[in-house]
C-alpha cells in the first residue's frame, strides 16, 4: 500500500524565506553581495532564491502532482503535500527522471520526493508566482488516485504572506533609492560573475519593457502525452514591477498582496 503524503511544505518554505531575508539583511550590514556570504542564496533585485539539497531534503519531502500546464521551455507543475499547493518547474535532469517513470502517461496523481530544489520568491506578478519551486532533482515513488481536498495555495498562508510583505518593503526601498542601499562594492558590475545558483538555464535578466516577445516554442514532450495543457508562467524570466506599480505608495501595494487570492486549480 502506498504511503500517504504528509504535511511539510509550508514549514519548509517559511524557513527558506526567513533564511534568505536574514542573509539579505546581513549583506546590507556587511556591504557584500548575498551570494558571497552563502552561495546557496541569490538576489537579482526581482527574485530571491535559495537552493536546498540533501540531507535537508529527505525521502519524506513528498509532493503529489495535481496539475500540469505548459510554461515556455518546460511544463509547470502544480504540487501539493496534501495541505498546501505550490507551482514548480523541472530542471532537465528532474524532467528526464519523471518522464522515464510515467512513460507517456498522465502524471496527475504521481508522487515523488525532492532531493534538490530552489525556492524562488518575489512580491511581484501573479499570486501563484510569488513563491515557486525549481526542482533540480527528484525521486519518483508511486501514483495515488485520490487527490487532496482543496489544499491552500502556499502564498495565501499567513506566515508566507507576512514574509512576502517584508519582501515588498525591500523592493519598494530599492525602487525609491536604487543606489542608496548598495555599497560601492555592490554597485560595481562584475562581467565575470557567475549566474545565480538558483537559476536553471535562465536567460540574462532584463526589465519587462526591454524584453522582446519570445517566439513560440514546441510544447515539451511531458505536455504532449495526452492530457490537457493550460497556460503557465516562465520561471526563467523573473517578473518585474511595471511603471504603474512603481508609482504606487508602499502601503497601497501591501494591500494588494494581502487581498489577492490565487485562482482555483
UniProtKB/TrEMBL annotation:
Which residue intervals make up region (Disordered)? 174-265
Q: Where is the composition biased (Polar residues)?
A: 180-195, 256-265
Output this protein's name: Telomere replication protein EST3
Tell me where on the tree of life, at the top rank, the source sits. Eukaryota
Q: Which organism is it from?
A: Friedmanniomyces endolithicus
